[in-house]
Each structure stands twice: as structure tokens, then as C-alpha cells.
Design brief:
Helix content: 10-25%
Order of helices and strands: HHHEHEEEEEEEHEEE
Strand content: 15-25%
Radius of gyration: 16 Å
Length: 203
């Protein structure tokens, strides 16, 4: 089996979120670290046709700068920018403040980004705010039904709850797939999930 097609992570029972996050973060980190440098440049290089078909031609697309272990989104950001889409990245001020998306004007050189909370590159505070029509987001775990387990801060769930028309697409490694998640009322479902080997959805 290709290392890209990592076996799914299966839990016999639905564990609490804290336990799941700990396990899945470890699995995600281990998988990402196991990829040879030459292979890292190939994964998530080009969005699959099924994903592209979900995106309106004039859509504003929100993406993210990946933290260590997360599915990388830089190549997707550059792809959609070169395709003519307006792109945006999240900006987080304080951890108790809502996440906002700001215009990302230089996906090829990232000259418009500054170091922000948790040392993640993000747009400067004077970059124009913009609401994405399509949002590609990281996750810790997901199911084949489009359920998502996030980092625990609730930033994406709150943003999606305030913008219910958004097409929400998760980006993940194959090892982040689980059979079930402890879903709560505030957890927002995904429209689709893309991994290096599969496309799940649209849901």
C-alpha cells in the first residue's frame, strides 16, 4: 500500500473529544513526519476535479496556513489564486475573539503575511476583511458522513454558524478518518472532505 493511502483510524466506540483529539493529533503528526521530502511536494498539489466542480467561478475562497502535521493548503491557495479567484486567510487576534477572514494578495510570495497567534502566518490587521463563499479548512478527525472534529477552539464552527451558506470543505490525511465522532449541537457539518487519495462528498 502506498504511504499516501494510510489505513483509516478506527475506534470501536465513540470516545470523548479530548481523547480523540489526543489520539488523532498523534496519528496525524506521525503520518506527516513519515512522508519523505520528495513526496511532501506531491500531496495536495492540485485539487481533484470533484472539488473544483463544487466551486462557483466567482467564489471567494478561504484557506489556511497549515500548522505542523495538518494537511498542507499552500499549493491549493496558489492554484485558486492563479485560476482567478479572490482568496482569503483567517486572522485571529485574541483567542477569545471571533475568527475573521482577510484578503490574501500574494499567495505566491506571501509578502503580505505576518506572524500571528500561535506563530501562524496570517494577513496583517489592515488587510481588508472578506467573507469566503467556499472555505477549505483543517481538521483533527472526520467521518464519511462529513462530521468534523476540530482543534477545540471552536473558531470554524462559530464562523460557519454565522455564515450557513458557505461551502465547507475539510482537508485531511487519510489516517484522520474515523467511524464515529461525539457530535454536539454547535458542531458544523462539512460539505465535503479531500485527502491525498479520496474525495468524500458532496454531503
Amino acid at each position: 500500500m502506498s504511504r499516501l493511502g494510510s489505513t483509516r483510524t478506527v475506534f470501536a466506540t465513540v470516545e470523548d473529544k479530548a481523547t480523540l483529539r489526543k489520539r488523532l493529533r498523534a496519528a496525524r503528526k506521525e503520518h506527516a513526519a513519515s512522508l519523505p521530502e520528495s513526496m511532501r511536494g506531491l500531496v495536495f498539489r492540485h485539487p481533484p476535479a470533484a472539488l473544483i466542480e463544487m466551486i462557483p467561478a466567482d467564489a471567494v475562497i478561504g484557506l489556511y496556513r497549515a500548522m505542523p502535521g495538518e494537511a498542507p493548503a499552500t499549493a491549493y491557495t496558489q492554484f485558486f489564486y492563479e485560476r482567478g479567484h479572490t482568496v482569503a486567510l483567517p486572522r485571529i487576534g485574541r483567542l477569545d475573539e471571533p475568527m475573521q477572514f482577510h484578503l490574501h494578495t500574494d499567495p505566491l510570495g506571501e509578502s503580505d503575511l505576518v506572524e500571528g497567534t500561535m506563530r501562524i502566518l496570517q494577513p496583517a490587521d489592515d488587510a481588508p476583511k472578506i467573507a469566503p463563499d467556499v472555505l477549505l479548512m483543517p481538521l483533527v478527525g472526520f467521518t464519511e458522513r462529513g462530521e468534523r472534529l476540530g482543534q477545540g477552539g471552536g473558531f470554524y464552527d462559530r464562523w460557519l454558524a454565522d455564515h450557513p451558506a458557505t461551502i465547507a470543505i475539510g482537508m485531511a490525511w487519510d489516517c484522520q478518518l474515523v467511524e464515529a465522532l461525539p457530535i454536539e449541537d454547535h458542531d458544523q457539518p462539512l460539505s465535503a472532505v479531500v485527502t491525498p487519495t479520496r474525495f468524500y462528498g458532496p454531503f
